[in-house]
């Protein structure tokens, strides 16, 4: 009886410490090591509540854009840990976490891995059913910082990009000049090869 | 004549000892339980507006408290949402810059 109860409690703790809806990881062991922790848990009800306090009027286009985005979201969950020193978390643990997104409808959009010790690893995964996006997971594992974002619902990365520069959200767009330079270099390289 | 009336009055008002079972009969007529005290708050009939004002104040106070709590929760949810979008945006920037950086290095090679 005690054992069964223990298993139930362990399952409940595991579910609570996960990042909701099938994305599990034991974050509780990282929090005590971190010097700064950010935890955001917004389910559908909380998103609806937040939406009520955002202006949908065209006069406040920043909030109107976010309010529009919220209509299709089911949940927003963030875990971010900043550590005083490098090596406070295991990259093997992060890889096990990433493994959840191999298959099961998840598509790997970006997967940058550094071979250097303490190098930065970044992954962007997108779950889609037909044309409809069901969720995005962003994993950013840096030397002294580990961040995981799980956004559930119909949202595309470019919609987040559209929010750049609004309400303190940093501008993530690459300048047209930078894009032009990349295109020029690419064309030049292809010409040289020919 | 007057003397007779006077004598009759004296007889009628003369002190008499009660019968031996008088006390028992009085006690038997008393109710068995004493009435409850302090269970009813009686409002003066002349001030019904006072009762209405107190009830209205309590109702408005409760409503305002509830709305304020919802406002606080809504503002906190909004703050958390913007924080989440800021972090997401930052990390997507990181991913984008890495991809662009790798592309640039490959082109340069």
The coarse overall form of chain A would be globular
Which structural class fits the helix and strand makeup of chain A?
alpha+beta
Please indicate the percent range of residues of chain A in DSSP E strands (runs of 2 or more). 25-35%
Shape of chain B: rod-shaped
Query: What separation lies between the terminal Cα atoms of chain A?
Result: 74 Å
The neighbouring-strand order within the major sheet of chain A is: 1-2-6-5-4-3
Secondary structure: helix percent of chain A? 25-40%
End-to-end distance of chain B: 153 Å
Strand tally of chain A:
6
Radius of gyration of chain B: 45 Å
Approximate helicity band of chain B: over 70%
Largest sheet of chain B: none
Number of domains of chain A: 1
Percentage of β-strand residues of chain B: under 5%
Largest sheet of chain A: 6 strands, antiparallel
Spell out the helices and strands of chain A N to C: HEHHEHEEEEHH
- Kindly state the mean pLDDT of chain B as a whole number? 82
């Amino acid at each position: 009886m005690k054992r069964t109860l223990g298993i139930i409690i362990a399952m409940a703790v595991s579910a609570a410490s996960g990042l909701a809806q099938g994305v599990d990881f034991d974050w509780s062991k990282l929090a005590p090591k971190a010097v700064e922790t950010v935890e955001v848990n917004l389910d559908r009800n909380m998103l609806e509540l937040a939406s009520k306090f955002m202006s949908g009027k065209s006069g406040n286009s920043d909030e109107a854009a976010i309010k529009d985005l919220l209509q299709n979201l089911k949940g927003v969950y963030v875990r971010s840990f900043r550590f005083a020193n490098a090596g406070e978390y295991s990259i093997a643990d992060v890889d096990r976490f990433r493994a959840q997104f191999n298959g099961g409808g998840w598509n790997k959009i970006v997967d940058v891995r550094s071979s250097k010790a303490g190098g930065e690893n970044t992954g962007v995964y997108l779950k889609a059913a037909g044309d409809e996006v069901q969720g995005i997971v962003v994993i950013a594992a840096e030397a002294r910082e580990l961040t995981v974002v799980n956004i559930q619902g119909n949202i595309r990365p470019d919609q987040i990009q559209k929010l750049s520069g609004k309400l303190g959200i940093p501008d993530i767009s690459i300048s047209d000049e930078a894009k032009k330079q990349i295109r020029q270099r690419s064309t030049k390289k292809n010409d040289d090869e020919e | 004549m007057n003397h007779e009336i006077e004598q009759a009055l004296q007889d009628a008002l003369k002190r008499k000892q009660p019968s031996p079972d008088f006390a028992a009969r009085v006690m038997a007529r008393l109710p068995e339980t004493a009435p409850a005290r302090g269970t009813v708050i009686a409002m003066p009939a002349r001030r019904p507006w006072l009762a209405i004002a107190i009830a209205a104040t309590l109702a408005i106070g409760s409503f305002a408290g509830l709305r304020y709590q919802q406002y606080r929760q809504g503002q906190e949810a909004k703050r958390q949402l913007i924080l989440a979008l800021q972090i997401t945006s930052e990390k997507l920037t990181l991913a984008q810059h890495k991809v662009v950086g790798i592309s640039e290095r490959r082109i340069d090679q």
